[in-house]
């Protein structure tokens, strides 16, 4: 993706959907951590709690291990193929093995260590109430927010340490998947494009690249056998319901199916 374009992504299975969500939330956490402001630190805590809620829904660690093992198996089978850059392939396989060793080294269930911290549990309980984390509701949070940025960063990094460890691994897994897609220029006639999915391929992710300052955006719907893309735009402003763009749209399509 260049500075003149923007990419929209659509996961094609639940595992990739979860990995993309964790990736997005950790990027949000990093952003708020980078700001020396008490409100930003508050949002950083909420991001950690949101990640925790997500990883509690399933065995994320095992899902990442399964994905890396699957990728390692697929890529290993390519070693003997003609025209393959073997040195690059071996480097990728080595990174996958290192990532597997790293995630196998994580003890216990992800996020379990945070359940023993009353400070975070109290914030989590109040966060579900609109306006429930005001200073008069959570004086202990106000006290923490009054600490130095260095102190707050130390705590945030300590609480999110496990998540950063899996983030390094899932970034590798997602990069391998994204790199497996090659751009093809296609046209959405009158703002609509549809295509069948090949069930014999391990369909993982769709990526749509359009110029950054386009007057439209894609809405992607994907099922087990096909997917469709509708390009929408706002006729006046974002207060209005978007409608389908009626002109032909040329865009780049990446089918990621490693």
Poorly predicted parts: none
The total tally of domains equals: 2
Tell me the β content: 15-25%
Helix content: 40-55%
Mean pLDDT: 93
The assigned CATH architecture of the largest domain is: Orthogonal Bundle
- N-to-C series of helices and strands: EHHHHHHHHEEEEEEE
The fold-level CATH name of the largest domain is: YacF-like
Largest sheet: 4 strands, antiparallel
Structural class: alpha+beta
Which class of the largest domain in CATH terms? Mainly Alpha
CATH level-4 homologous superfamily of the largest domain? YacF-like
- In which order are the strands of the major sheet placed? 1-4-8-2
Rg (C-alpha, Å) = 22 Å
Shape: globular
The N- to C-terminal Cα distance equals 20 Å
């Amino acid at each position: 993706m260049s500075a003149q374009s923007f990419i929209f992504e659509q996961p094609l299975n639940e595992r990739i959907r979860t990995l993309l969500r964790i990736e997005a939330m950790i990027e949000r956490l990093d952003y708020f951590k980078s700001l020396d402001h008490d409100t930003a630190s508050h949002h950083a805590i909420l991001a950690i709690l949101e990640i925790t809620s997500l990883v509690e829904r399933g065995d994320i660690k095992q899902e990442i291990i399964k994905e890396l093992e699957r990728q390692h198996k697929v890529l290993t089978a390519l070693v003997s193929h003609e025209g393959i850059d073997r040195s690059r392939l071996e480097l990728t396989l080595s990174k996958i093995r290192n990532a597997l060793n790293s995630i196998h080294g994580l003890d216990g269930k992800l996020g379990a260590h945070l359940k023993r911290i009353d400070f975070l549990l109290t914030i989590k309980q109040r966060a579900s109430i609109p306006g429930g984390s005001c200073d008069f509701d959570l004086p202990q949070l106000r006290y923490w927010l009054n600490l130095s940025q260095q102190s707050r960063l130390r705590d945030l990094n300590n609480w999110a340490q496990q998540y950063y460890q899996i983030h390094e691994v899932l970034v590798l897994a997602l990069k391998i998947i994204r790199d497996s897609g090659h751009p093809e220029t296609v046209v959405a006639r009158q703002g609509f494009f549809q295509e069948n999915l090949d069930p014999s391929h391990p369909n993982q992710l769709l990526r749509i690249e359009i110029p950054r300052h386009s007057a439209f955006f894609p809405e992607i719907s994907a099922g087990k056998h096909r997917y469709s893309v509708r390009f929408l735009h706002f006729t006046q402003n974002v207060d209005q319901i978007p409608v389908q763009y009626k002109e032909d749209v040329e865009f780049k399509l990446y089918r990621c199916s490693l």
